[in-house]
Amino acid sequence: MDQLSSQNAFSGVEFAENPEPRVPCVLILDTSTSMQGPRIDELNRGLQTYKQELVDDPLAAKRVEVAIVTFGGRVTRLAEFTTAPDFDPPKLQVIGGTPMGEAITVALDMVEERKASYREHGIAYYRPWAFLITDGEPNDHWKPVVGRVQRGEEKKAFCFFAVGVEGANMDVLEEICVRKPLWLQGTKFAEMFSWLSNSQQAVSRSSPGEEVQLSDPTSGPTGWAQI
Amino acid sequence: MPSPWRFIAESRRGPSHEAEGTPCQDSSRARVLGDGERTFLVACVADGAGSAKYSDTGSSLACHAVVEGATAFHEEHGAFVDLKRQDVLGWLGAAREKIAADAEARECGVREYATTLVGVIAGPQRSFFFQIGDGAIILGNHGVFGVVFWPQSGEYANSTNFITGKGFEEFVEFQAVDSGFTEVAMLTDGLERLALEFDTHTAFHPFCAPLFRSLHNTDDLEGLAGDLRGFLASESVSTRSDDDKTLILASRLRETAAANRAG
Question: Which residue(s) pair with B247 in the sheet?
Fold first, then answer.
């Protein structure tokens, strides 16, 4: 089936075809010029891994939905929420500065819109994920998003994670993020997306009353992060 | 005169519980009380929370307490005509006491016993239904099906209400109806997406109709229970949900059929 935008009159079709509960995840990706070279290549490869691992799990393939917002020069809603089989990993190109604040706002708006759409169509859903990856610091007005992220975490409206690639301003990430931001080891994007997929597979299988414990991303052979 | 009610009840562990060797956290219990014109089916299913350590015990204690509570009520009153929501809350309170005692012995919190509870008392002219948490009761009369309470869920798919929760009373739904029913199905969360239509909030007819037809027509209840076990274990059902799955199917023989069988 072709991708349908949420504005489309047929937007309900995807829910009629697949009434499974959803685990929405928006990726907020830094595509500013500092990501040039192996970084963006590995990030692109990581997105392929992410799709493949989700598709390989029959339940996650129906339940986990991915969306992408990029910030490089300007903020782009690059992919609307869709399940893995319909997710076409983009080949990200780098350009311009780092409007991270606006990107976070856009991503959290998308999460709210998606939740409203689930409710409208009677689709059950799990707590959404927002996953920020950057190797720099915002060059826009980012302070207002701090309150929004904190309120959202408090109300359990979403889980917000931040990952810094070498060069990232961790002080800013720590200010935005309620959870401890993590450093990516080198360019281990594939390992990171593998972890993300595994965690979301566990969430998508979880039953009422079950809090999913995420595996520690900083240790073991599959570790990709450091504190 | 034989009982006008016949029922089968089966639970199946979810695939990952099976792989990990953890017990099935669902429980069910059913009993027929009284006889002749005044026969009642008492049945319940309970779904222990996935993250709670002893929720298999919790769901079992809850079902036990409700069926014993109903039996005691029936012995005292000879019928269920005057059953009130308060009586059901009393049975659930007894379940909570049992759970609290067990938790004390194991030195853990009652949240480790978190469980839902779905209950039915079905008589010839009057029936009662109650529920806290997810799961569902599907009722049928001569091939028309309906859902009593829609499964309770918080904002997120993995949140619901449990009898072990604070202020649980406010989440207990209770309904008394001046009617009998020929078919009753009760199920836990793991079967919701097969048995219910989520867009219209109705029972899924193609799921219910064939199962009840088999139950009405069979002369071999044990064989049918085996078929139900096979159905719950089948790949098409088990891959629909990773959760434990429980189904009670009950049907009341129509008077003429019952008379024929008796004769």
Answer: B10, B187
- What does chain A come to in residues? 227
A23-81, pLDDT tens digit by residue? 999 999 999 999 999 999 999 999 999 999 999 988 889 999 999 999 999 999 999 99
Q: Does B19 touch chain A (CB under 8 A)?
A: no
Q: Hey, what are B33's tokens?
A: 């009380």
Q: Which of A51-60, B95-104, B114-123 has the lowest mean pLDDT?
A: A51-60
Assess contact for B113 and B27: CB atoms under 8 A: no
Cross-chain residue pair A21–B55, CB shorter than 8 Å: no
pLDDT in tens, A167-218: 999 999 999 999 999 999 998 998 999 899 888 888 887 777 667 778 889 8
Cα four-point dihedral sign B12, B226, B38, B125: positive
DSSP string, A78-116: EEEEEEGGG---------S---HHHHHHHHHHHHHHHHH
Q: What 3-state DSSP class applies to B19?
A: helix
What is the predicted ipTM?
0.75
Q: Distance, in angstroms, between A21 CA and closest chain B CA?
A: 7
Classify residue B128 by its DSSP letter. Answer: E
- Roughly what angle, to the nearest 10 degrees, separates helices B205-217 and B221-233? 150
Find the chain A residues whose C-beta atoms sit closer than 8 A to any C-beta of B. Answer: 15-16, 19-21, 58-59, 121-127, 156, 203, 205-212
As to burial, measured by CB atoms within 10 angstroms (0-12 exposed, 13-18 middle, 19+ buried), residue B67 is buried
